[in-house]
Amino acid sequence: MGPEAIEKAASTIRQRELPETGLRHLERFVLALGVRRALDYEWYLRRSHPDLARVKHQQALSLGRAHADSVNRDWDHLADELGRVAEFEHQFEVSLARVGTRT
Fold first, then answer.
1. Is the pTM here over 0.90, yes or no?
2. What is the pLDDT of residues 78-96, one digit of tens each?
3. Whether the Cβ atoms of residue 13 and residue 86 lie closer than 8 Å to each other
4. What angle do CA 77, 71, 78 make, to 5 degrees?
5. I need a surface site. Which of 22, 38, 65, 72 has the fewest CB within 10 A?
6. Phi and psi of 68, rounded to 5°?
7. For residues 59 and 38, is the Cβ–Cβ distance under 8 A?
């Protein structure tokens, strides 16, 4: 999911337009999977691209906080945290493009 899609999800949550089934899907699947995938990226990139690994580590922490917000039904904080997740995703994409131009 790209940064624009994450921002759209945050906006939908902030405006209370995501149905309960969508919120539960976020809580029970999407956010937990996002944490796991970000940590997998971090592990994979740790030695070859430590800067990219750090971005994914920070994103994993942010996704974990978003998960806690969803469990606590704190929609405003969840939306804010997803905004930070989108920022990390954008940062990762920009940094990854730079790495690609060096090879």
1. yes
2. 999 999 999 999 999 999 9
3. no
4. 20
5. 72
6. -60, -40
7. yes
